[in-house]
Amino acid sequence: MALTGLEIYKLLPQTNCKDCGYPTCLAFAMKLAAKQAALKDCPHVSEEAAAKLESASAPPITLVELKGDDGAVKVGNETVLFRHEKTFYHKPGLFWRLRDTEDGDELKRAAAEADAYHVDYVGIDLYLDGFAVEAASSDPATFNAAISAVKSVSKKPLILIAPSGDLAKAGIEAAAGSRPLLHAANGENWEEMAEVAKEAGVPLAVQAEDLDGLAELTQKLKEAGVEELVLDPGVTSYRDSLEQLTSIRRLALKQTFRPLGFPVITFPGANSEVDETLLAAEQIAKYGGLIVLEEFNPASLYALLVLRQNIYTDPQKPIQVQPGIYEINSPDENAPLMATTNFSITYFSIANEVEGSGWPGWLLVTDAEGMSVLTAWAAGKFDAERIAKDAKTFDVEGKVSHRKLIIPGHVAVLSGELEEEMPGWEIMVGPREAVDINSYLKAMWSN
Fold first, then answer.
1. How far is the C-alpha of 132 from the C-alpha of 251, rounded, in Å?
2. Residues in the chain with pLDDT values less than 50
3. pLDDT (tens digit per residue) in 324-336
């Protein structure tokens, strides 16, 4: 039976030394109870206590970290089957598969193009997480050169697809300074792959035809001293992926089946008969950890990145922007002043419409705890008192010469109260939808 945070705390040294990375032993105990920390992070726990805590405190899905020269991808350490139960913690990494049979200059060009891909989504920078380089040539020197070519233009994390110990060593050598995932150990090569992974201190993917085979291999690899593993169940279809990945997650979380308590890697483009983007989207939702794409398509990648961002946003903490006064299209003192909440989608909907219309404007973003306009108003988080307070805090009177404030049409009821809170100001009721801002300003705004 799982131990509570207090039960775990009683078995810890209780010195609050902070060597585990947490401010107190109690805080560390709570993280252990929530399966969000590992007992090995405490260097002072006694052997007796460790024996009692090991099975109770170990995360059901091991955390695996890949590192590039400038960035990292963490997967695993999830504690729930469904996002609404709590939240998902580590977003699946999206990688692009490159092969060492490509010309070196072409590899550099392709990797540089993908590495430069960045897109803004409600203030969040979305991008490809890394590259999977495959030793398709079966030649260690060629594989080494290909990895070096990719590393020369990108600092992102790597996955090294190498089916033998010699190839794996060549890849590890070329990836020096980073921490790649080595793919993959199977029933025939697991001993030599385990030796390479253990010596290099890198995580290792495990490949088998069924879940029984995966469980058997992970146990052998753990006995060989490799702790960070990633499962490759070889799924290639929509149904197979959903069934296998869900079974792995259920066995790990509901039955604490340690041999399958690891994140999963998938290759949604391996089967030409399915749509890679659609299968990748399914695997983002259910329950891929590292997803390797065959094709770099910015349009499809954007859709996958947005889907991932939405699924892996904490449902209890909406995406929000910093409260303040924002400038749009270089406004002067005569530009209109509008108010809204700090819910990111609301903010960017309005900001994009104003920017696209060409109107210069000031946008007063109030602290509504990340809620949309109507939700915040209903919860008492977007009212006249708060708007007036933020207007004073952010010195709107010093920004504009007029005394006109436009509020969202959905909260027209606040106009009278705002005029009482902000004496001398004219409160104008704006449109209900952001798309109507341009026509509203054309019809209603005058200095």
1. 28
2. 1
3. 999 999 999 999 9
Q: What is the secondary structure of 167-227 as a DSSP string? A: HHHHHHHHTTTSBPEEEEE-TTTHHHHHHHHHHHT--EEEE-SSHHHHHHHHHHHHHTT--
Residue 285 sits in the same domain as residue 333: no
Q: Are residues 157 and 29 part of one domain?
A: no
Q: Please name the residues in contact with 146: beta carbons below 8 A apart, sequence gap of 6 or more.
A: 98, 99, 100, 102, 104, 107, 133, 174
Here the CATH number for the domain that contains residue 29 is: 1.10.15.40
Q: What was the pLDDT predicted at 55? A: 63
How distant, in Å, are the alpha carbons of 151, 244, 317 from that of 177? 10, 34, 36
**How far apart (Å, rounded) are the C-alpha atoms in residues 72 and 15?**
32
| Dihedral over alpha carbons 378, 384, 390, 393 (to 10 degrees) | -150
Residues 130 and 261 in one domain: yes
8 Cβ neighbours under 8 A, 6+ residues apart: 29, 32, 33, 53, 56, 57
Range of the domain at 95: 64-311
